[in-house]
Amino acid sequence: MNVLVTGGAGFIGSHTVNLLLERGHRVRILDNLLSPVHRERTWPAYVPEGVERILGSVDDPQAWKAGLVGMDSVLHLAAYQDYLPTFSRFFHTNAAGTALLYELLVADDSLAKQIKKIVVATSQAVYGEGRYHCTNESCPQHGVQFPGQRSLAQLEAHDWEPKCTACDTALVPQTTLETDPPRPHNQYGISKLAQELVCLNLGERYGFPTTAMRYSITQGPHQSFTNPYSGALRIFIQRLLHGRQPVVYEDGGQLRDYVAVWDVARANVLALEDSRTDFQAFNVGGGKALTVLEYAQLVGRALNLPVQPALPGRFRLGDTRHILSDISKLRALGWEPRHSLEEAAQAYAAWAQQQPGFRDYSDEGMATMAQQGVVRG
Questions:
Q1: How far apart are CA 73 and CA 246, in angstroms?
Q2: CA distance 145 to 168
């Protein structure tokens, strides 16, 4: 295949590009190389020599057109992600940028005839809190529930767990299926759901086989250390390697599933090559639930460093308490997570320490989020 990879100089994109090349595909990258992900507007050293590169943004029709010429498939991984209240930018890049791809294909019959497959990166953030269970058998709503976001008053009271609206019992988190109703409640998740609705519906309407990949929290090397707003692995490692302890939000009991970036790259390539994925969304996760505190300890063991996380009682407005993705649908196609989280942590630490300018950026990110009302408490 001739594959256009948007965001191909980024974290997940770069590993996916490597795997595509290993499998004999021709690759072209479209990336805008903007901060805070990239320190300077230059191509990272990990982008393979000989891969065609276009500097441009997915909100620019001319960049899309230049990227699409001669391509027969698209891996659309470019996205905007942080925790800041720059709400319009999320939709401008993630939703409108994706809509622009389909708009250009529908408008140009020669381009449309070329494209045989589109894979779009979305996120488990589309679920919001996801699937829970009320354990109170006398409750009129006993059983499966999909709670909304926790209120500011609840978070300020340090009452962290989602509650049943009928009996006020703390709900028990379950793994979330692709068929469960999406209920995103932060700007990133809402923009990603909008992106999914665009790509899957327009793809089916106009005959462009499309797959949406709902990534869990992806970890490994090439994850930007200059973007301090998200990513437990990079923040924990930055602090640990500079003699400081991780700062954990809420009480650290939040359940997450983490997945190594190499496994995500394999899932992307499977979706691209396998027509059984057409017009569907797939969860891409690690298949194991860890609390944030457990994950901090895992990172410490991987680096052979002692970990005693700080728990100042802060919280991020819009965070999900627990989110766990069921990956049985992707497993049924032969995919399985192969790489350990310890391996991902060690690889990230080794890579980061080799990069010029590596330092601890975590205080800057937390200060900015606090100033803009994202981090509270």
A1: 41
A2: 13
CA distance 263 to 85: 31
Between CA 21 and CA 27, with CA 23 as vertex, the angle to 5 degrees is 35
The letter for the amino acid at 325 is: S
Helix segments in 95-151, DSSP class H: 96-107, 109-114
Residue 86 neighbours by CB under 8 Å, 6+ apart: 187
Alpha carbon of 347 to those of 257, 302, 340: distances in Å?
19, 10, 11
The answer, yes or no, to whether residue 128 has pLDDT greater than 90, is yes
Domain ranges for the chain: 2-131+174-376, 132-173
Asked if 41 contacts 53 with a C-beta cutoff of 8 angstroms, the reply is no
Q: How many CA atoms lie within 13 A of 179 on its CB side?
A: 2
Query: Tokens in use for 103?
Result: 């708009």
Q: Phi and psi dihedrals of 355, rounded to 5?
A: -90, 140
Backbone phi and psi for residue 280, each to the nearest 5 degrees, phi listed first: -135, 160
| 256: its two tokens | 């997450």
Q: Give the sign of the dihedral formed by CA 206, CA 210, CA 216, CA 221.
A: negative
For residue 228, is pLDDT > 70? Answer: no
The domain made up of 2-131+174-376 has a fold known as: Rossmann fold (3.40.50)
* Contact in structure between 47 and 17 (CB atoms under 8 Å): yes
Hey, what are 13's tokens? 């994109």
Residues 251 and 15: their CA atoms lie apart, in Å, by 33
Q: How many C-alpha atoms does 299 have within 13 Å on its Cβ side?
A: 30
pLDDT for 323-343, tens place per residue?
A: 999 999 999 999 999 999 999
CA distance to 54, 92, 273, per residue, from 89 (Å)? 22, 5, 32
How far out from the chain centre does Cα 99 lie?
19
pLDDT score at 308:
97
Q: Which tokens is 369 given?
A: 């989020």
What pLDDT, in 10s, does the model give residues 251-261?
999 999 999 99
Can you give the three-state secondary structure of 241-304, one letter per residue?
HCCCCCECCCCCCCEECEEEHHHHHHHHHHHHHCHHHCCEEEEECCCCCEEHHHHHHHHHHHHC
> What is the spatial distance between Cα 132 and Cα 295, in angstroms, rounded to a whole number?
22
